[in-house]
Amino acid sequence: MEWFQVYLPIAGIQFNILLLLLIGFTVGVCGGFFGIGGAWIVTPALNIFGFPMPYAIGTDLAHMGGKSIVSTIRHGKFGNVDVRLAVAMIIGTTTGMELGARLVMHLERLGLAESVIRKIYIIFLFLIGSYVLYDYLSHILRQRKAAESGTAVSTGETFAQKLQRVRIPPMIHFKASKITCSLWLPVGVGFVTGVVASVLGVGGGFIRMPALIYLIGCPTLVAVGTDLFEVMITGAYGALTYGVKGRVDLLAAMWMLVGAAVGAQMGTVAVKYVRGYSIRLLFAVTIFIACSSVLMKQLEFQTASSVLILSAGIVISGVIIGWLIQGVLKERASRQARSWAAFKKED
Amino acid sequence: MKQRLQWLLRKSPLIWPKLRVPGWAAALVLIAGQALAAGGKPATKLVNVADIRTMGPGLSRWIAEVYNDNLWLYGALVVVTMALMGLILGTVFDRLVGMLGIDLGKIEHHE
Question: Residue A255 needs a FRET pair 20 to 30 A away by CA distance; which of A57, A207, A219, B1 works?
């Protein structure tokens, strides 16, 4: 293992290359599959293995930009990226993030920042996870009822469809998402998610992804791809701002990006073989794990919290890779069956 | 002059105890003043320096030197490297996955 030790001059520590590749790979799979940056996995993982916290955050943000490019290229080819929608949201997100940062400074002046933010974070994660899980379970129940009665699945009018009916000009059609709504809807949703992300001190992927589904009405896969486009922009900005402050270890980020590029490709291709609701279910589970980890941190079980999040990341990426392998094998088998049938027909 | 000096020596055991407290105070002010003057203004920022003394020539050393020389240049280097690596690795792995025989065309959105 000595061979794989590398000196990282900026963080000022010796680190194992294999560990960097593993962390990158894990977060690459999860990021490509869920459309998130995955800072909540990388930052505690780097920190637990000896990275000082500011360097862990900066290095994570730097590799996040590169990793999101890998995923966005693939999602773009799958037709999952709605660039127009992403640009509209970025306008709201950046404004919201600025307001959020000011809010945090105000809380800091009151001496409430640390405790209040962590509590909000726990409540927020719990609410998002619960809602996504509730949505998944009610979808399954609806499907069963429809199968018993032999009718089509009725979903009724969703909250997103109600929001889309608000006709405040200019109205815009988003081609990849197949929705028409007021420009103010994505700008507003971007703004709100920006404020929340900034207050919580996170990239915001895990807030934006469900917001794109439940507030704007995107199909799950388009939500994943479009969110990754946004993560790419915020990651690049984060890399610059932390780089200028000298808090990015470029060498570590480069090694992590190699692992993440492989993982992101696998995670992104895996979405092809699963239905949108399966992504939502695994997303809900992931959110609950993240929530438990923050709760443990609040109760001052720092190491246990980091171990939980890292091992959960490995298990979740294992599940995703399992789905990918299953899907590829099925696809190959059906292709072989088709070509065999065509061969027999010719005979 | 001689008489005055003799008077001072005679009286000094009485004068010195009275001067002890203000003397120490004056000395403290002088020393603290000197110390503050030597220290300059309070530090506002820690200096970022990568230790390259034990490093041999190569990419790591070059990155560390850029870091030590100019942080703005280092920030730009981080963004450009990550973007270029993302583009190159994305394209390469995309081709490799295509070579595995997976259909990578547009996909239908099933909920």
Answer: A207
**B73 in reach of chain A (CB within 8 A):** no
Number of domains forming the structure of chain A: 1
Quick check: B78 contacting A, CB < 8 Å? yes
Say yes or no: B104 contacts chain A, CB-CB below 8 A: yes
Q: Do A68 and B86 touch (CB under 8 A)?
A: yes
Q: pLDDT of A249-266, one tens digit each?
A: 999 999 999 999 999 999
Residue with the two structure tokens 């990651």: A235
Which letter, b or e, does each residue of A316-337 get, where b requires 16 or more Cβ atoms within 10 Å of its Cβ? bbeebbebbeebbeeeeeeeee
Q: How many angstroms from the chain centroid is the CA of residue A61?
A: 13
Q: Are residues B102 and B82 in the same domain?
A: yes
Same domain, B30 and B51: no
Asked if the C-beta of A78 comes within 8 angstroms of chain B's C-beta atoms, the answer is yes
Q: What is the mean pLDDT of residues A268-287?
A: 88
A162-200 pLDDT tens trace: 888 888 888 999 988 889 999 999 999 999 888 888 777
Q: Please indicate whether, in this complex, the C-beta atoms of B89 and A261 are within 8 angstroms of each other.
A: yes
Domain shared by B50 and B29, yes or no? no
Q: Is B106 left (phi over 0), alpha (psi -120 to 50) or beta?
A: beta
B107 and B77 belong to one structural domain: yes
Which of helix, strand or coil describes residue B81?
helix
User: Structure tokens of A283?
Assistant: 């997303």
Whether the ipTM is more than 0.90: the answer is no
Please name the residue ranges forming H helices in chain A. 17-34, 39-48, 53-78, 83-109, 113-149, 159-164, 184-200, 205-211, 220-244, 250-270, 276-298, 302-346
Structural domain harbouring B64: 46-111
